[in-house]
Amino acid sequence: MHHLIKISLQVVICFTLLSSFQIKAQIISTQTITRGTVNELQVDSSGFWIYNTTNEDLEVYSILSAPVYGDTVLSAELKNSVVPIGDSSWVSVLFSPRHNIEHVLPLVLVTSHDEGAFAVEFEAQVQYSNLYYSNTQNLSQGVLRSALTNIVSANHSVLSYSVARDNMYATLDNHGGLVECVYTGRTATFNTRSGAVANNINCEHTFPQSKFGSASPMKNDIHHLFPSDQSANSSRSNHPFGVVTGTPNWSVGGSMRQGSLFEPRDAHKGDCARAMLYFVLRYGDYSNFYSSQEPILRTWHSNYSTDSLDIYRNNGIYALQSNRNPFIDYPQFLDRITTLVGTTSAIPNPDFIISEDTINLVHRPGGGQSVRRFIIANTGNVTLLFSNMAISNSGLTISSGGSSKSLESGEHFEVIIDYNTSNMYSQDSLTFLSSSSSGFSMITVPIKSKTKLDLEDRSSKNDFVVLIEGGLRILGITGDEKLELIDAQGRLIAKKELNQMPSDSFDWLTFTPRIGWLRIERKGQATICKFAHSN
After folding, report:
1. Does domain 456-532 fall into CATH 2.60.40.3080?
2. Higher-pLDDT residue of 43, 508
3. Ranges 218-232, 273-287, 459-473, 510-524: which has the least confidence
4. In the sheet that 515-522 helps form, which strands lie side by side, from edge to edge?
5. Could you give the 3-state DSSP secondary structure of residue 139?
6. What is the C-alpha separation between 68 and 96, in angstroms, rounded?
7. pTM greater than the 0.85 cutoff
């Protein structure tokens, strides 16, 4: 016999789940992830919860984001792509930044939910761990180029040519007593200038001396000086770099020259490119020698990445000259500078993503009003204006997101479509205009209905659950029920399995939120009851 229990308020609506009716509740725990300031050395981890408050398993089809200068820096990992009924799942968001800029990035969850997609905005400010480059934060193009020039020029201790070569042969390019020609790979054992002469090793100026009149400090700057075999140094002369495609006039150790074009071996292509990039950043393009080579040098810089010897050499030069090569420390700086000579500006790349190529509305015979969420995110590098939102069917309305919207790179917005689920839509579409400084385009997204059976409304039959003081009273017990208590945010807060004889009722004395859901599974059939306390 049950104790006398005061009923706070009989506000309980129950539904027998015959199909995929969705309970309207927020399925993600946040719409914004703000990480503050992070640096490039850490893989920053955060995340959010997905709550399944529907009557069917919630599937996450994909999670979309935007690149940053071509790199995927934000990734979302969901342990299980299917979130069971009444359950929740943690989405781990990993942030691996490369650029010291402010990041605003979308995470668009494409799901099986009736409402469609859901979006989270990720925000973080990245600063480089090497404070030598602190004045480059959030800069790009000309202002970044100027900032880097100022950085590598400030406090530059100019060495004599003799001291520069002494250090190059003795420590910077001497490994285990051996000095290697950067072009041919030939090695010799020495550690002095006289030893270099005795072994036919010269000092190669990557940016040729003849182009700047052998003047100081360019002649003495070790960042573009390397040991070279005398014959290789002579063959290179002051020829520009490039790719040899015909029969070479000279070829040793992988390096070759054809006419007035010189191609270094693969082992030196990246070092050669970064030496040239540094020189032009620091001093400018003497005799316009660099400008025609920039495309291939940028390619070599990208294809042949820095290694431990490059870092060792850069650190050693910094100890001597008090300046560094930025393109060794942070090769990605070049991604933010279109050219190192003349006027520089970003190449426009207008691009965006949408949450679905076809807007799939839910059709339920005898259904009612519902909404569908359609998400647009700017994944390009220019501001985009979205306007002229229109739907071909007058029975569909845009309740939110229909007005013109300007999106900066990484930003997103939602278009909410109101419709009646009892209607069928098959030949309809959403159209809008995407505009940027480089032009505009009209986008058409088809709209179609996907049929789902409706549920039986059992609200008129009080044979499921009653709110009681201290918990819930479940009626008509078979003895093998599985109970799950879910709060209004979709979080599973309690669960219980019954194993008893059939009875008229069972009192589940447990904490109940002010508003929540009770899921009852019995004999293979699930029922969800929504309840609300009066206080």
Report:
1. yes
2. 508
3. 459-473
4. 456-457, 12-16, 525-532, 515-522, 482-487, 492-497
5. coil
6. 11
7. no
